[in-house]
Amino acid sequence: MNVTILYAYPHDGGYNHAVLEAVQAGFSSRTDSTSADAPVHITTLDLYKEGFDPILRFDAEHRRRDLIHDPSTEKYRTLIEDSDLLVFIFPIWWSGMPAILKGFIDRVFVKGFAYRYKGILPEGLLKGKKAWIITSDDTPGWFARFFEPDYGKVLRHQILGIMCGIKTVRHDSMHYMRASTPRRREAFLQRVQRFASRIRA
Questions:
Q1: Which residues form a coiled coil (predicted)?
Q2: Which of 53, 145, 54, 70 minimizes the C-alpha distance to 113?
Q3: Are 94 and 139 within 8 A, CB to CB?
Q4: DSSP-assigned states of every residue in 39-79
Q5: What's the CATH architecture for 2-196?
Q6: Cβ atoms within 10 Å of 60's Cβ, excluding its own
């Protein structure tokens, strides 16, 4: 199973980095004797360390429809194409994902690669791939559920599902970070590590 982790957080000392390490440890713990999908090949794409440019540019000479041929994003399209599972790890800021991850989607999940149109409806071109979304935020879970848009859900349903044809198998969300206890944070880390150790493509 080929796994690509798309990680969007700028600080190695933050909780999101602990989540990344827990997920990596879970995948790395798999062996032929414990998983039907072993061995697992993991690629971690740290968008901040990668220095990814999130700004989408096109003009009269460089047309939007030609983004599928952009040489600066070719390696990312190849990486996604070769992946069975995409793992998204990011915080929710201002009810949305970090700009660097939104820009990655704008520039890489482009028409002709991730989707096309059949009449007025989109058709996903990445069918057969799965996604696991892991988010954190500073909002109480009940409030987020009823009053605040959750970009993890937007990513799951609208972007990956409807547009690209990718099935999200799970969305883990660590709510209300500033009021969380060490015990609750550790329990969340154990949960995502455990799931990484057994998820199948």
A1: none
A2: 70
A3: no
A4: SPEEEEEEHHHHT--------SSS-GGGGGG-GGGHHHHHH
A5: 3-Layer(aba) Sandwich (3.40)
A6: 5
For residue 199, the one-letter residue type is: I
Structure tokens at 140: 């109480």
Distance (Å, whole) CA 80 – CA 85: 9
The token duo for 22 is 């827990």
Please give the pLDDT value at position 69. Answer: 94
**Ranges of each domain in the chain:** 2-196
Going from the C-alpha of 84 to that of each of 3, 15, 40, 173, 176, the distances in angstroms are 6, 26, 10, 22, 31
pLDDT per position as a tens digit, 115-145: 999 999 999 999 999 999 999 988 766 666 6
H-helix or E-strand containing 156?
none
Q: What values do phi and psi take at 118, rounded to 5?
A: -115, 100
Degrees (nearest 5) of the Cα angle 114, 164, 111?
Answer: 35
User: Do 4 and 104 contact (CB within 8 A), yes or no?
Assistant: no
pLDDT tens digits, residue range 40-69? Answer: 999 999 999 999 999 999 888 888 889 999
Closest CA to 98 of 16, 200, 201: 16
Enter the pTM of the model: 0.91
Q: What is the DSSP string of 68-130?
A: GG-GGGHHHHHHHHT-SEEEEEEE-BTTB--HHHHHHHHHHS-BTTTEEEETTEEEES-TT-E
